[in-house]
């Protein structure tokens, strides 16, 4: 069973920064691509960013390019999402996800991820 534990959400003002963390086991970390998704009530979960198992490839949604950065710390088995210049439209519950790198055909799609964290709320006031 894969466990993903997110932290770092909160309430901030537009233009502020937050860093989300997602901790898991070393085994999970080494065998999986990691992704961040977000969801607001009444809408589908949407892709934010992903990083390959080796950390050599990253992907971003157009809406966050240039503002968000995904990274991973192998020693801590933790993936981060640095969010700068936050906007009110970034308000959502953010979820960390893990997907087997051998089956990761499309990292933008939630269906390729097999495990999810509990989510952390990010609220950005204007």
Radius of gyration: 13 Å
Count the strands? Answer: 11
Share of helix, binned: under 10%
Number of helices: 1
The largest pleated sheet is described as:
7 strands, mixed
Mean pLDDT: 95
Relative strand content: over 45%
Which residue ranges are poorly predicted, with pLDDT under 50 across at least 5 consecutive positions? none
Describe it for me?
By secondary structure, this protein is mainly beta. It is 5% helix and 47% strand. It is globular, with a radius of gyration of 13 Å. The mean pLDDT is 95.
Give the arrangement of secondary structure elements.
Layout: E1 5-7, E2 10-13, E3 18-23, H1 26-31, E4 32-39, E5 46-51, E6 58-60, E7 68-73, E8 78-83, E9 92-100, E10 115-116, E11 120-125
Parallel strand pairs: 2-11
Antiparallel strand pairs: 1-3, 3-8, 4-5, 4-9, 5-6, 7-8, 9-10, 9-11
What would the keywords be for this entry?
mainly beta; seven-stranded mixed β-sheet; four-stranded antiparallel β-sheet; globular
What's the short version?
With 126 residues, the protein is mainly β. The chain is built from 1 helix and 11 strands.
């Amino acid at each position: 069973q894969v466990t993903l534990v997110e932290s770092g959400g909160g309430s901030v003002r537009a233009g502020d920064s937050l860093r989300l963390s997602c901790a898991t086991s070393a085994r999970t970390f080494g065998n999986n691509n990691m992704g961040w998704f977000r969801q607001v009530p009444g809408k589908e979960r949407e892709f934010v960013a992903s990083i390959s198992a080796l950390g050599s490839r990253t992907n971003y949604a157009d809406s966050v390019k240039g503002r968000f950065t995904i990274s991973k710390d192998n020693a801590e088995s933790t993936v981060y999402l640095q969010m700068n210049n936050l906007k009110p439209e970034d308000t959502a519950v953010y979820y960390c996800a893990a997907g087997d790198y051998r089956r990761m055909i499309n990292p933008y799609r939630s269906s390729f991820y097999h495990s999810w964290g509990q989510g952390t709320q990010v609220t950005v006031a204007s």
